[in-house]
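Chain A, query sequence.
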Amino acid sequence: MIQNPDTILALDTSTKICTVALRTADNKVICKWEKGQGIHSELLFVFIQEVLSEADMSIDELNGVIVTRGPGSYTGLRISASAVKGLLFNRSIPLYGVNTLAYFAEAGFGVESEFKRIHSVIDARRVHLYHQLYENISGELRPLTQVAVLKIESLNDIIEPGDAIIGSGISRLPDGLLSNLQVMDDSLIRASALITIYDKNIKLNGSFEDDDIIRIVKPDDFEPDYYNKSEPQVNKK
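Chain A, predicted structure.
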């Protein structure tokens, strides 16, 4: 158990999932989750207020706020970006932006730690997915590819036996491709995994600057990340 943990609010609206988590000073995590089309503008602030009320806390008692910075739905990312700018306006609370695909992988590894590799995907419409491949080395999340927009059929070239997949748009994958993967339901994707990434970064690195997975960002200047179409380049070991 973490001693004297930071109080953290985490939120994600990058896909059809709207999820908010709060970690309190006594290390309790309160999480809200709902999935649906166009629900973010209605539920995001409701969830934020609910978790704060349940913990009997205010925004000013937070040590930090975490938000997914992309890739993902343009509308969803804009909603969360606007929300954190409003929440942190005229406050000196740090804001951290997390790579959405890394967050998905962390959620997957947190439930099924025996998997060595997880493909994180987000529906990019038409015949494409946002994709990034991660491995789990002694609990540490490591990217094996860069974020890319891939044609669905090209996943066949990078899948290995025993790989898992997590994210949105999985239902669009052909049965033949899915038969070679361990499919993880997107109900596992909860904002509490953003807090786990935050804690691991402090333990492993102690810095949030220029990190592919999590980095500190300025609330006033925060803009979600978008990615151009490209093919993955697997990192050499």
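Residues 229-237 have pLDDT under 50 and may be disordered. The first strand starts at residue 8 and ends at 12.
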